[in-house]
Amino acid sequence: MSAATCIYCTKSKPLEQFAHTEHVIPKAFSKGFRGALTLTQTERPSVCDDCNQRFGESLEFALGRDTFEAVLRLQYGAKPAGEAGDVGQSRLEITLPEDSKHGPLRVEFRAPPSGDQPALIPKPQARFRRRAGGFVCLTEEDLVEKDPTKDPEIDTDEVFIVWSGDDPEAGERVRATLSAYGVKPKKWTDADDLPRAGTTEVEIEIRGIVDQVIARAIAKMAFNYLAWVSFGFDRQFALRDDFDPIRAFILHGENHWREFVLFPAPNILATDSEVRRSTQGHLITLEWKRFEGIASQVSVFNDLTYRVALAKRTRGIWRDIGSGHHYNPITMKVEKLGRTPLSVPGTLVIP
Q: What tens digit of pLDDT does each residue of 228-283 get?
């Protein structure tokens, strides 16, 4: 009976237990691309079904729904607008700009009532004036732990209560919570002129966090790519003990994520800048620098870039394993990146 060894749990298992396809770039972001990089039972059996399922239910689930990359899925149509309500569970804070009429009200995505663009609705919240100028908003969840009367920066003389029609009782709940804190404003104001979901375009600001789970999901893409690249010249390469620390981090969350993931990292393409992007496609690279170890760079939709230290110390004879791929959103093909001789070492470009 044929067998293979999983690059994560390092267990040797029958080949039948590698039946599920492991995508280098998760399927949530790479669906529809021809030539998508995959680790499969027939060509590159590298990730067992148990690890594949564990990652799908935890790391990839969070990456695809609760990150800035998840918002980009909506923006670029990789996630249907009808599923917009799944985006932004806990790691995202979406607000109207502070200098706008209703800023900084907190909002969340919802499926559109009509059309193909995600809708935005306000979270249940209270808006207060800051004594130093401007406003501050506390959501219903914030008010569970924060008493606005204890914050000297908050003026509680006037309270603006906001909620959506999806939860008509939310306004009263927020008001009751504030009353329990002893808030006795001179004026209660309910929102009645907010932009209606699906009828008006509004500018939003998005703040997100990178935590242990998200960093592990990014690192998994990088390690999958190393396995994909190295399988062609050494099937055992990804199983070397040089990679035990990153393996334990991805599988079990051992050590803090900043030990392995640099964020934000420099742009991958030589032709990109802070204000210009050559592509909106995904980019992933691999390099082995002498005396610096093996690292990968990952950029979903070529927006935020992460650098993953796969092995800080390596043994054995150095070899050039440099590689890069581009998920081209125009051709919907996965293409190898080229190098420009204008810099030393050559910088990656789209051929």
A: 999 989 999 999 999 999 999 999 999 999 999 999 999 999 889 888 999 999 99
Going across the sheet that includes 125-130, the strands are: 135-139, 125-130, 154-162, 187-190
325, 334 contact by CB (below 8 A): yes
Phi, psi of 272 (to 5 degrees): -95, 155
Distance CA 288, CA 320 (A): 7
Helix H or strand E encompassing 60? helix 59-65
Q: Quick check: 104 and 121 in contact, CB under 8 A?
A: no
Question: Could you give the angle at which helices 244-252 and 212-230 cross, rounded to 10 degrees?
Answer: 130
338 three-state secondary structure: strand
Rounded-to-10 torsion of CA 29, 35, 38, 41 = 140
DSSP-based three-state secondary structure for 279? coil
- Whole-prediction pTM value? 0.91
